[in-house]
């Protein structure tokens, strides 16, 4: 008996389940990743490096260890992109969650420089690299689990479930340190900072239970069933889709400005401007609540109007609002700083809510995990972890935040140009299939016709691709 065709209600139920599971999993992963950035800004410079370093150097070195995680993310993207495109999204995401939990709890148990000397920063970097590998493989799979299970035409909207994990995880990380900020400084430096890292063990258990119950995406099931698994997905990506990878990486610097706000600004405000830890963490928390609320509207906007117009509406204001945020913080007024940070948060949050779905439509399903991860982690390698390092270096060198403000505005400009170029290549009508999706539809139709005519579909498909090169960029519809 032929399997029954799923109803719209069945499809929606499965999509919602996948979306929620994606959100919870990425929340846990990003919580683990973001608590490191917060701790690097507040405490790592003092406890994992020599106490006789010049002012600001310990913090700069702590930010360099933060960057180590970003340097490792492309490795995770390649490794887990390969696994995700060959054995499936679900199993790969279970592995990344376990790795992240081990690394985070390990950091919480790490001895300090006063206890083991130079081995303290060495072990810190090693565990940070493990975090980077894990999150490098996490993001692409989480986006695809949500978008590939989405109802027809709603891939961008459902990819926003995975994106919500970033502000949620960041908010959890910020609140964890907010509640610890009232501790006396000696106790906080001695053991208080460890609590958020050790708490990760409980969160990982919750995430594992949810992910083990998750179904594989339909797009990946189709790839496995039709035996279209690519032997070396990253090789295929770099050989045939390298332009999309570069444009995707160029589109993403705006997604990294959170490290200007939540990492560099936290260190700057508490060490040089006189803000109390709890006060500035409260400002960050308010901005993260705003991000969590407004971020999905970016995906909604991109799904309803010309995608190029939507991107311009979201990104252009950030050219001015992100630089203005630093001057709002410099007033040392809680209200003005909070308003400035919230206003700067709105544009890049909406952009972040939409960009994952835009990138996911660009790559074929059988290499989509690798392609998506390559673009995201290339940007993270060059821009993400380097952002607080760059900002702190500019501040140390010039003694002024003006250069930092200009750099933040440039992130938005690069993202705007590259995203528009990407959309011009892949399609910008939200109601139509992307170039890759349309090619895939053509390929599937060719297979159906060949099957009805009794022709070997594998041969026919290759002939079709040879006659129509654009079919080589086909993707299973999400």
Automatic annotation (TrEMBL):
* Keyword check for Transmembrane helix: yes
Pfam short name (any one): MFS_1
Q: Cite the PROSITE patterns for this sequence.
A: MFS
Q: How does it sit in the membrane?
A: Multi-pass membrane protein
Places the protein is found = Cell membrane
Read off the InterPro entries from this record. Answer: MFS (IPR011701), MFS_dom (IPR020846), MFS_trans_sf (IPR036259)
Bias (Polar residues) occurs at 457-478
Gene3D superfamilies associated with the record: MFS general substrate transporter like domains
Q: Is-annotated flag, keyword Ion transport?
A: no
Judging by the UniProt lineage, the source's domain of life is Bacteria
Q: Where are the transmembrane segments?
A: 57-80, 92-110, 116-146, 167-185, 191-212, 241-260, 280-303, 310-329, 335-363, 375-395, 401-423
Identify the residues that the record assigns to the Major facilitator superfamily (MFS) profile domain, covering every copy. Answer: 18-427
Region feature (Disordered): 433-478
**Sorted UniProt keywords:** Cell membrane, Membrane, Transmembrane, Transmembrane helix, Transport
Q: What is this protein called?
A: MFS transporter
Which organism's genome codes for this protein? Rhodococcus artemisiae
